[in-house]
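From the pipeline queue, job 12 of 40. The input is one protein chain; the requested action is below.

Action: predict structure.
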Amino acid sequence: MTNMKKNAIVFDFDGPLVNSGWDKSIHILFSSFVACWDTGFRKFLHPDNLEIDINKMIQGFVKYPGAPRFQQLSAVVSCIVRDKPESVKEPCELGVDENLQKEYKKLQERYNEFYSGLNDAAARLFWKPLPPVRKVIETLSKDYDLYVASGIIQEILERDFDHYGFDRKLFLGIKGSDPAGAIDKAEILKQIKNSGYEDVLFIGDSSKDLEYARKAGVKFFRIKTADDYARLMNQIKNGLPDEQDIWEYTEQELEIIKSKVLFLMKTYASGKKLSYQDITRWINTGRFSP
């Protein structure tokens, strides 16, 4: 690496750079349900009382916000199958029979297809970079090496990065996960830190991002709204900040997420198939048509 600066700043993509609101939370949960419903894992669902399922699913989701997509999926499925909010590396860990272990690949494929479709539709119709982001990136690039570290699959991350018009010349690396979702942000942050920087700051938006920063031994700053960038730029005058306070979803936030997902689950279970565009419009506007 030539002309490497003393310190680096690493941005998570969703949240700090592109404001996706609660959409991805809803997408993860609803896509997990669809993947189960459309495969042999439907046997673990409760069609007559889907509230049982969403209440289980949410327990796995809240433990893995910002994690690679298949890690999130396995945690949610684990809750559905065995009431344990823990991700698994192999389907045999779920305690299911051999037929369902073989079908787990099909479940992953259906989840990947549906989740990607929802994200693509929302990205086209609603998601936008936070207003101060471009100016902040330009300013920080003068004094720090900049990177992106995301749980998004590398190919999708680079496509999305270009879709929103971010300037690649201002970043030394755009780093995502592998197709299997096995590379998480902690691993990426460790690679960046070990490349020779004195100090590294990771900018994320979830408690899981804070956990990744701690594992990698780097500093952390949370971005939830555009106002947080003003706070960052003020604090950074005195050196890279480091926030270590853990936070959780509020009950109100979880109720909003659960109610939206439950409605979509009931709609899907009724046999009414909505397009990705219809779904993302309803999530963001409460309507199925423009």
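Job complete. The chain has a mean pLDDT of 93.
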